[in-house]
Amino acid sequence: MQNFTFYNPTQIEFxxxxxxxxxxxxxxxxxxxxxxxxxxxxxxxxxxxxxxVASLKAEGIAFVEFGGIQSxxxxxxxxxxxxxxxxxxxxxxxxxxxxxxxxxxxxIAAGALYEGDVWDFFIGKAAPSVALPIFDIITLxxxxxxxxxxxxxxxxxxxxxxxxxxxxxxxxxxxxxxKLQMSVSKEYLVYSASDIIAHSIEGYxxxxxxxxxxxxxxxxxxxxxxxxxxxxxxxxxxxxxxGEFAWAATCALNGxxxxxxxxxxxxxxxxxxxxxxxxxxPHGAGLSVVMPAxxxxxxxxxxxxxxxxxxxxxxxxxxxxxxxxxESWFNKIGTPTKLSQFDLDKSNFEEIIxxxxxxxxxxxVGSIYTQKVFEEILxxxx
Amino acid sequence: MQNFTFYNPTQIEFxxxxxxxxxxxxxxxxxxxxxxxxxxxxxxxxxxxxxxVASLKAEGIAFVEFGGIQSxxxxxxxxxxxxxxxxxxxxxxxxxxxxxxxxxxxxIAAGALYEGDVWDFFIGKAAPSVALPIFDIITLxxxxxxxxxxxxxxxxxxxxxxxxxxxxxxxxxxxxxxKLQMSVSKEYLVYSASDIIAHSIEGYxxxxxxxxxxxxxxxxxxxxxxxxxxxxxxxxxxxxxxGEFAWAATCALNGxxxxxxxxxxxxxxxxxxxxxxxxxxPHGAGLSVVMPAxxxxxxxxxxxxxxxxxxxxxxxxxxxxxxxxxESWFNKIGTPTKLSQFDLDKSNFEEIIxxxxxxxxxxxVGSIYTQKVFEEILxxxx
Lengths: 382, 382
Description:
The structure is a homodimer of 382-residue chains. Chain A has two domains: 11-180, Rossmann fold, CATH 3.40.50; 186-380, Dehydroquinate synthase-like, alpha domain, CATH 1.20.1090.10. Chain A is globular and about 60 Å long. The first copy, chain A, is α/β, with parallel strands linked by helices and 382 residues long. In chain A, a hairpin with a 4-residue loop joins strand 7 and strand 8. Chain A has helices at residues 22-28, 42-45, 48-58, 75-88, 99-111, 186-206, 212-234, 239-252, 267-279, 283-298, 303-314, 319-333, 349-362, 371-380, and strands spanning 4-6, 11-14, 33-38, 62-66, 92-97, 134-138, 150-155, 160-165, 173-176. In chain A, 49% of the residues lie in helices and 12% in strands. In chain A, the strands form two sheets. Chain A has a six-stranded parallel beta sheet with strand order 2-9-6-5-3-4, sandwiched between helices. A two-stranded antiparallel ribbon of chain A has the order 7-8. Chain A contains 14 helices and nine strands. In chain A, helix 9 (267-279) crosses helix 13. The interface between A and B is large, with 39 and 39 residues.
């Protein structure tokens, strides 16, 4: 095992009715005035907004609304949030929504106490030295943002989909109530499944050192995602399945499945971020296209682990069969596996690769992901 | 899944040479004078003590030594430590040793800032409202104490082996260097394997609600323990195996394998604590005697999970075969499976059961673990 530091101080409050306690958690943490961030007006229609407001009022916590954050969240919106947080002098942030809302909120938390351009944190020009405390009620299980220190935002001017990371950005308290996730559409459920599997396999396949205990823990997550996705497609209101799915999402990216590994990279995310940034495809949908294509290209570089994957996840004997089984499963649940499903073809390669090469440099894998490699992987996705 | 709160703020520093940084971690956390707790003089002979002292001196941190803490640690020794911590007005504690040293140190951390009797915290008469910060360098992988908020101490006057628990007792920083654990005897290695498996199976078998993702994560731990114990018996200096074994120990009791479960109890620990308290048998050795005996009695109460255990861990088809396989494996690695190996027989039942019934009440399972049940389980261990 490689040397590592593991530190994850986020308090998870998981279960039914937990959102009603959000005011108490803010109060315990000394927050007096909060920026309440969210996406669409769905939370107003389904009553969650009212529940949150009642909980804040019960504790005498003031709030300022900041809605309209979209999927594949944009830097321009983060700038707006930073300006509002500064103007209103909030002392905390409460995200109510999915990964995009929370990721944007993390950027606002760091930007609100920074004189310069918050994008500096994404391009490594500066690191946050202080941030407002972050709280969240997560309504979509996918990104794991509720228990990690990162956030991803797209700079629409440059088409860069980059990440901010800092231990200051671990949420103080994250509320995961599986009931609140029952209204997620089947479409977004399967995209989320794809996203969680992507978080699981990046390190699993690319790490130069991969402890077996970590492989086993990753497999626990993937098996759970496969099993519970199928249950939820049958019955979206299956609380147990919804709960296990949500917790699998958290475990996939809270650090526990990456400790002791080394030399890993995030090639599937690196490639998918191009698709999201250029064509605004849903992140999970892009990932289920990229993964099988990438795996077909990468398999010979870590054959034993691909064989292990085939065996442990699908009970199959070869690397090829394992990849094929995953692709078939994506098809079965209804998440895309081909570029054509986004109306993309060979004529898009040039622009994809142009942004992709920049991403590869940003992800620290520029020497591996050359023009030729991009072409091969994209061809696998035709 | 049951509602749960998960919060574990311990910073883990895992890997080679990490112990050299202990002074820095104390400094960052504002500690100026530390009580340095340990067990035998082994750490002085093997150079670890000198390394620690050099690291403290480099940061200008004063220290007071408190050695001689034994396995199955005693309340009298904790009292001594509390008195010394008060007298010397230390502002932090550094445990260098195994679970017994760290558990005692947790009790001292709470007792040092308490006017009353520290045993109050063990019997539920009081709860810690404040505690000194705890740091540790863990030299034996077994108890998981390095990443949890509990500690177990024996009151030699009453023969009670009870626990203290408080979120204030999470270590601030725990250092796990697998190299420092290479000198552990084969005897204590196999007792530790037994202890880790016991931590894993208590919830796994007894929980009334057991999410499958948690079962899978528990199985990841158990499989890793079995595999790495065998490797370490062959070659105690196998760094990878030592590392995975150590991390499995941490994962087994850091809360991650208990979230979302409900209604679980710790019957194997409850019974074993009697053996340790009465006869001073090593905790892990006692557990490998208790577990198969308890499993034979309990199996019909959760048949599906026992069948799952047999299948997932040993590739076998029935509950009975799984239990037998675990017992055989304990025999193979050389940890006891029968009371006779401690020179105990039926004539000891009366005194065991007398203390055991008290423990059952303390563990909240008094209505289940009656005289008759104890007799049946103990008979299985003859």
